[in-house]
Amino acid sequence: MTSDGSAAAGDGPMAAVDGSTAAMVAAPMLAVRDLRVASASGTIVAGLDLTVAPGETVAIVGESGSGKSMTVKALTGLLPEGVRATGRMELPGRAELAQGSSGLSGRAGLVEGRSGQAGRAAPTEEPAGPSEPTGRSRHAGSSGHVGSSGHVGSSGHVGSSGHVGSSGHAGSSGHAGPFGHAGPAGRSGREIDLAAQGTIWRDVRGSRIALLLQDPFTSLSPVHRCGEQIGWAISGRGRAERVARLLAEVGLPADVAEKYPFQLSGGMRQRVAIAAGLAADPDLLIADEPTTALDVTTQHEVLELIAGLQRERDMGLILITHDLRLARSRADRIMVMYAGRLVEEGPTALVMDAPAHPYTARLAACDPPITHRLPVLPTIPGSVPQPSSVGAECAFAARCAFAVDACRMAEPALAEVAEGHRAACLRPETAGLPVDVPPSPAETVPPPPAVAVPLPPAATVSSSPAETVPSSPAETVSPSPEHSGRGREAAASLFHAGEDQGIPASPLLSVEGLAKTFPGSAVPALDGVDLTIAAGETVAVVGESGSGKTTLARCVVGLERADTGRIDFHGTATGARRVQIVFQDPYSALNPGLTVGTSLAEALRAAGRPKSEVGELLELVGLPAAYARRRPRALSGGERQRVAIARALAPRADLLVCDESVSALDVSVQAQVLNLLADLRRRLGLTLLFITHDLAVARQIADRVYVMHHGRVVETGPVDSVLGAPAHEYTQRLLASIPAAD
Amino acid sequence: MSPRPDSTANGRSRRIPVVAIVSAALLAFVAICALAQEIIAPKALEQDIYLGVVGGGVDGHLFGTDQLGRDILQLSLAGARSALAGPVVVAVGSMLIGFFLGTYAGYRGGIVDMLAGRYADLLLALPAVLLAIVVAGLVGRGYWVTVVVLIVLFSPSDVRLVRGAVIEQAPRPYIESARVLGIRPSRIMFRHIAPNIVPIVVANLLLNVAFALVALSSLSYLGLGVPPGAPDWGRQLADGRQLLGDNPLAAVVPGVLIILTATAVNLLGDWLSDLLDRRVVAR
Ligand SMILES: Nc1ncnc2c1ncn2[C@@H]1O[C@H](COP(=O)(O)OP(=O)(O)OP(=O)(O)O)[C@@H](O)[C@H]1O
Ligand code: SF4
Ligand SMILES: [Mg+2]
Which residues form the ABC transmembrane type-1 domain (chain B) (predicted)? Predict the structure, then answer.
């Protein structure tokens, strides 16, 4: 448990905030203190404070499993069974805020440095006034009393009586409590014990906090018309008009009310979900990866929509995302989570441009740039540890290039590095330093414990000159440099045994006039597509969802049959040796019931190759051969994707089609897999057809790019010229939708 | 990305619920009776005509006797065999048809799928009991004739169920990857798809055992199943009707046994499918 760390985190900066400055600060509309989430298997979120001011956008970023979703689920009482939260949340109504802070009703400046900082500092801070019995009891559940016993007494605060102590606060001058200015007790503001269960949450979710999820399919009911669903939160008469108004507000035609979710596109569904969330006029909107499932242009529109609605309503917004570019373009403040901990927070500009935690800096570096191509993408060696496995140490220490002994002695507390900017790092000054040294094929990463991702040596950016190779646990075979070099060469040579190494760049695949209309659909998915790929080339196909990219890929591998047009392979290979595919979702890419070895052996056998090549295949994608015995369940997403790639390589096909193969991965893992593909291409002379909606990814991997729109290729050419100087209006629009371009 | 801990594999879900334990115990008892009928109920068919019908507790007959003077307890224990054997054969038989036909139809689509669909429609349209009566008239009555008729009648819903589950699995990336890799369709069907639909198959199998038990008992009750005098709960129920005045237990005991057994099978099926489901889903 890390209660010490978080208590200290609260203590550190509070001394800096004295009563008088805090009094000037605008009231946060949400203040969460010491949120902890745990399941039977251990800690999930290890102590987190969070405030949101009206009209403010706070982004929570972090990689998969860092606890972002669990945090927001805890704030809405939606934790899955077996997962419990502790902590306290204050959630005064907007009306109450307006009254209590009448002098500060203007929103301007709310989101800037000082206000945010004080708001954050406040929740863990005891009132400055020495004699405040009520205030003290009010804080009974905070860090000093971790555990449910500390919260028992607090249940009395649940409900509108929660502000028993706040009148005392209001009276005391210069106190620092976030809601001290709130009116007399009995107003609608409330302090909620996050460990509470049951009906209290219905009220919170219904009218105070709205939650928007990644896939609106999961939050919308499939069997009810959209209008009905939007109307659920509206009581009384005039429901139909309000529904119509909400639909107009989110930019949907009125007839959507009569439709079912499945009749709408992803973007429209998300708009319906937004309308339904806004129906009860919430104070705070929490959006958990609201646009991850949408393509760039739709993503842009939905985010604009949310921003507009937020301005109008002065709504607070918590934006959960793994996309740093998006966080940068939308948020006032950014909170970076790592392994269930808050490692850095502060105003967006400070966090992004002057990160004070090495993790933030490394994560940002993994994000491929749209403007140019990097020879090798920076990666973070290793993988995110389970929050519960982190002891009294810096959670990032195992992967940090700047780690010193002190980092492994105690968990660093959040400490202020600049006004409103805090980081949990002992050496915040190192964060900005470069760690990228040119990769050398001999480098290996420390083999992490059982769950981690061993990187392919050639694709790794070593993070520290002093990095050593610790002795590996029995199961993870960490190839020594020489050994791994040999292994890879042997594996690579396998692919070219008896083949001509110096193949001329003749077309390997040519597609002509491909057209396909799915039955029951009015518009064609493919509308006369021409495409060629030369041997050894990497070609990217980009476009929004519904532009026909995936249909094209599926036709090429034979999973779909085109209505008209030709697909010609010019190689000599037949069947499985012509083309293989790697799909998007690593979690359904492998049969959950078969071990990795069985899956690979099966692929090898189908291609008429000996089973004994399983180990080489795994080594080729940078996994220890011992992984053959594992089941997919025991692999991370990145590792599964590697296995999927290994399986696709088994028949040694001429062409590898990647259908959004990295889009479900975290940036750091995405960088690893992109590096792996580039490396395989170099070593095996692989030809790649890479389908992606992410232009930056296309930039990194492809030689040439095809831009698709409505089933047609609208622009094609070398990746630098198409993305650098787009000729077609649609390409320009795609580029303009990228968050960083805002 | 770190692997999600298999949250369902530990903690509370490890404990087997009491309901499942009780159901399993009851079914085990019924199964033992069915297997060891000769040992457990050796005197099931012994008639004590001089005694006639007596109520519970008389002359060492715990539940009394029936119209032929047979001990209700022994007779009921002996009835376990026909209560279990037939329904299990019906459920397994119809699921075998459903499994192969449904998998094939679901995975291959096209003409096979269409024919399987027609077959299912046709059979579902026929009134089951009427068909059983007609078949009994043509072939002669008998327990196993009824069992075969029920297999045929139960199979269409199994075909549909399996077909649906297969259709749901077929577009998954790991199946499509297997197709692109050129793995044989039969292997894809039975090695990749089948294990992942096991939960639904097992659940339905047990559900069908319960249904078949009730169906067979009803047919016996109507005089279509077992020959007169054979130990069978449905038959006992029918015979016990006339004895309600003299020994109500003659009807109550087999009735309760039918209900208990059918319920236990159902509950066990629920639990088992939950368990398997989580195993398959856990990833
Ligand atoms: N139902 C559950 N029971 C127990 N632990 C869970 C459960 N669901 C998720 N977890 C664990 O909680 C941790 C945090 O998960 P969470 O979903 O909050 O991550 P996230 O940051 O939202 O990741 P992503 O970017 O993938 O959405 C993970 O380690 C995960 O394994
Ligand atoms: S320098 Fe130390 S405290 Fe800072 S991130 Fe690295 S390991 Fe953690
Ligand atoms: Mg999440």
Answer: 84-269
